[in-house]
Every structure is written in structure tokens, then in C-alpha cells.
Design a protein that fits this description.
Trna Endonuclease, Chain: A, domain 1; alpha+beta; 2 domains; DUF1828; 6-stranded antiparallel beta sheet; 13 strands; Domain of uncharacterized function DUF1828; about 260 residues; DUF1829
């Protein structure tokens, strides 16, 4: 892989995203179907309408939380605290079950991107309803980093070449030995989880030459405790270092602590 090949890949990726963004008029607003997938392998949809105060409102019309509740996940107690914590990291609000964000004309693409990332993170809360899951996988990884005395910054956002911002779960600072390491965690390392984790990484990588990408894949949340070779290969093809949680994470302590 060289720079010219990477530019061709970026161009093809941008065309793929654009080709799979489908707008449909719905009343006074527009529903946009996106290539990002939820845990049911359905395309995520956002709804764009005029804000009476000026600008625009982008919303999921309550689909994300409603789908969680239909699946038996009740949003109460500590789960509400976790929801608010997730949303605050993306500057997204919850209003009567809807996830929404306001935007002006100039920042609308960035705000829609932040809403989609928030929707994916909230959708991942479904796994909290399973008795085998005590904490969000992201917190488990954070605790592991602390246990191994690896300093990190939680929840940073970085701007890609497109001008859009993408949020990572953790960042480990640059030093003389290693570039900055940006970390994503994937609790459900199937096709949908991998695709959401990869979303935006190529954009960030093309804008910054001072960082490496690392993705933690939770093998304890897969059938038979095995992450598929296809998922691992997909991460490598995007230039990310896959770390299989529950299998080989400890072998990466020297790389992350360096």
C-alpha cells in the first residue's frame, strides 16, 4: 500500500458512503438512510428538519431507544446515567426518547456524523441487558489500561480530512518512541460492530500521520469465544492493530505502554 493507492481507496470509500446515503421526503422533513448498521443489521436512519429557532434539527425520532425497549432493555436507574454520559460525549441530547442534535447549515454534516456515532454507542447498551455483561466493554478496557499503568485520555474526538469529527474511546499520547495511539473498542465484533468501528478511521488517518489505530475486539461476547478471521483481517486491511480481548491483550502491554 502506498499513498496514491490510499488516496484511491479514500475516494472509493467516499463514493460508497455517498451512494448509500438515501434521502426520502417525509412530510416537512427528510429521512436519510445511511450505510451505518445497528445491531439488527439494519441501516441507521436520521431525520432532518427545520429548527423553529433557526438552522436544523437532526433526530433519530426515537428509533434507537425504542428498539432497545422492544428488545427488553429498560432505560432506568444507572442505565440512564450511562445514556447521558454517552450522549454528552457527542453533544447529543435525549428528548422524550429521541436522540437529537441541532445544526447550522455549515456544520450539518459534522453534527449528523456525531449523531450517528451516538446512535451506534447507545445501541451497544443492549448488551447490558445480558446477565453475563457487568460493565460496558469500553470501561473494562479502560480499567485494564489503568491496571497496567498505561496513561490515556478518555473519549477524545479528532477531525478527519473531510472536516468531520470522529470520537474514539481512548487515546494514548505521542512520545519519542511511539506515535499517538487512538483506540476503539468493539463489544460485538461481528460485521456490524466492525463496520461501525472502521467508520471514519480512514478519514482520520488521511489527515494525521502522527497516530496509529488500535481496536479491541471482545472475544468473550462471541459464539464459542472466537473472533472471526474476517473481522480480524478487515481491521488489518484498514491499518488498525486488532487486539483480541480475552485472548491476547496482555501481549500488547509493551506496545501500548511504550
Amino acid at each position: 500500500m502506498n499513498v496514491d493507492q490510499a488516496r484511491g481507496f479514500i475516494s472509493a470509500y467516499a463514493k460508497f458512503v455517498e451512494a448509500n446515503m438515501v434521502p426520502v421526503q417525509q412530510g416537512n422533513g427528510v429521512c436519510i438512510s445511511t450505510p451505518m448498521l445497528n445491531r439488527n443489521n439494519d441501516c441507521m436512519r436520521v431525520y432532518l428538519g427545520d429548527d423553529p429557532a433557526g438552522g436544523y434539527v437532526i433526530s433519530d425520532l426515537g428509533e434507537t431507544i425504542n428498539d432497545l425497549e422492544l428488545s427488553g432493555f429498560t432505560m432506568k436507574g444507572q442505565r440512564i446515567d450511562k445514556l447521558n454520559s454517552i450522549l454528552s460525549g457527542f453533544s447529543v441530547k435525549e428528548e422524550k426518547g429521541e436522540l437529537c442534535i441541532t445544526a447550522s447549515g455549515s456544520d450539518l454534516p459534522m453534527k449528523m456524523n456525531m449523531l450517528l456515532q451516538a446512535m451506534a454507542s447507545v445501541d451497544d447498551m443492549f448488551l447490558l441487558s445480558q446477565s453475563s455483561v457487568r460493565n460496558l466493554f469500553t470501561e473494562d478496557v479502560g480499567n485494564w489500561l489503568l491496571d497496567n499503568e498505561i496513561p490515556y485520555v478518555p473519549g477524545p474526538s479528532f477531525q478527519g480530512r473531510s472536516g468531520l469529527s470522529f470520537k474514539f474511546d481512548y487515546a494514548i499520547g505521542k512520545n519519542k518512541r511511539r506515535p499517538m495511539r487512538l483506540i476503539k473498542t468493539v463489544n460485538n465484533p461481528g460485521k456490524q460492530g466492525i463496520q461501525n468501528a472502521l467508520f471514519g478511521w480512514e478519514d482520520i488517518k488521511s489527515a494525521r500521520n502522527d497516530c496509529e489505530g488500535v481496536v479491541f475486539l471482545n472475544s468473550t461476547n462471541t459464539k464459542d469465544g472466537v473472533v472471526s478471521p474476517e473481522s480480524i483481517e478487515a481491521c488489518k486491511n484498514y491499518g488498525l492493530t486488532p487486539i483480541i480481548w480475552g485472548v491476547d491483550q496482555d501481549s500488547y502491554v509493551p506496545m501500548l505502554a511504550a
